[in-house]
Structures are given as structure tokens and as C-alpha cells.
């Protein structure tokens, strides 16, 4: 992996309603109103940015999956079109994927039911996040709550 020192993005000059992009070192922060269209745009941007920074395609796919699960959880907790801040950037210890939503009261939690259990009717998303981004955490923030994840960039990179 090699890091590119200059951002490849520019802020959205005339933002699409419900979508504003802000570059940050080694990645971006996207302020979105949750929708399939905006999630698709952020997933595509994640791929482009991480590949441009030399991140392996398998790791990029893992980061996209984690991002989708976190956004989906925020939509389930807060409702359709919830305002979110999605951050994706390369660090020295992996790929940071953070999602902020406005509800500090509804916190995601790990379940004890194994992913492959017949009893697991739902709730597999955070189990996948556990596998792809071990050690994820939640903290209350000034805008609600933030779920913070680190996707290892290569085997043994945590």
C-alpha cells in the first residue's frame, strides 16, 4: 500500500440536494440525506478514493460493505432520509469508516447469536462488521452518535 499525500477530491461546488462532499486527508467526509442514490454515490466514491490510494480491491470491498451496514443501521434506527455524515479515509492502521447519525439514544449492540445460527433471523449486519472491522465502537457525539470502524488494510494490519 502507498499513501497519496494530497486529496483527490474537491468540495461539492453546487451540492446535489442532500449530498455534500468534503475532502479530508487521505479520504473524504460526505454529508448525506440517506437514500439509495446517495449510498450508491458514497460507495462508488469509497471505491475510487481507496483504489487511488493503492488499497487492495478486497479491502475496498470490505470497507464498502461495512459502510453499507452502518448506513443501513442508521436508517433503521432513525428513519428514511436521515441526515448522516459518512467519513472514509486511509490511516496508518487501516481504513477508517465512520458514520454519524442524529440519534444518541439508539446504540447498535453486538448479539451473542452466531452468524450461521438458524436462530439468527436478523441482526447479521453487525456480525459482519465484527468480522471485517474488529473492535468497532460507538460514542455519543455533538451531532448524535458516531460508529467508528477500522478495516485492516492487509492481513495483520490493525
Q: How would you summarize this macromolecular structure in one to three sentences?
A:
By secondary structure, this protein is an alpha+beta fold. The protein has helices spanning 36-52, 57-78, 124-132; strands spanning 19-24, 27-33, 83-91, 94-101, 137-141, 144-151.
**What distance lies between the first and last C-alpha atoms, to the nearest angstrom?**
14 Å
Mean pLDDT: 84
Give the fraction of residues assigned to helices.
25-40%
Spatial arrangement of strands, main beta sheet = 1-2-3-4-6-5
Q: Beta-strand percentage? A: 25-35%
Q: Counting H and I runs of at least 4 residues, what is the number of helices?
A: 3
Structural class: alpha+beta
The poorly predicted ranges are: 1-7
Secondary structure tally: strands:
6
For the largest beta-sheet, the strand count, sense and barrel status come to: 6 strands, antiparallel
| Element-by-element helix/strand order | EEHHEEHEE
Q: Any idea what the radius of gyration is?
A: 15 Å
- Which overall shape is indicated by the principal axes computed on the Cα atoms? globular
Features:
30% helix; 3 helices; 158 residues; 6 strands; six-stranded antiparallel beta sheet; 27% strand; alpha+beta; single chain; disordered N terminus
Task: Explain what the structure shows.
The structure is a single chain. The protein has 158 residues and is of the alpha+beta class. It contains three helices and six strands; from the N terminus they run E-E-H-H-E-E-H-E-E. Strands 1-2-3-4-6-5 form a six-stranded antiparallel beta sheet, with helices on one face. Strand 3 and strand 4 form a beta hairpin. Helix 1 packs antiparallel against helix 2 and helix 2 packs antiparallel against helix 3. The longest helix is centred in the middle third of the chain and has 22 residues. It is globular. 29% of the residues are buried. The N terminus is likely disordered.
Amino acid at each position: 500500500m502507498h499513501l497519496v499525500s494530497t486529496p483527490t477530491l474537491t468540495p461539492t461546488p453546487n451540492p446535489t440536494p442532500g449530498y455534500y462532499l468534503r475532502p479530508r486527508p487521505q479520504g473524504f467526509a460526505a454529508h448525506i440525506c440517506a437514500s439509495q442514490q446517495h449510498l450508491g454515490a458514497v460507495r462508488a466514491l469509497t471505491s475510487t478514493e481507496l483504489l487511488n490510494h493503492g488499497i487492495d480491491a478486497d479491502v475496498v470491498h470490505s470497507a464498502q460493505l461495512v459502510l453499507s451496514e452502518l448506513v443501513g443501521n442508521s436508517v433503521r434506527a432513525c428513519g428514511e432520509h436521515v441526515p448522516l455524515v459518512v467519513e472514509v479515509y486511509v490511516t496508518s492502521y487501516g481504513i477508517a469508516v465512520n458514520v454519524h447519525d442524529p440519534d444518541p439514544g439508539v446504540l447498535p449492540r453486538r448479539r451473542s447469536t452466531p452468524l450461521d445460527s438458524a436462530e439468527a433471523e436478523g441482526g447479521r449486519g453487525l456480525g459482519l462488521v465484527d468480522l471485517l472491522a474488529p473492535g468497532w465502537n460507538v460514542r455519543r457525539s455533538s451531532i448524535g452518535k458516531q460508529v467508528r470502524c477500522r478495516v485492516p488494510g492487509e492481513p495483520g494490519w490493525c
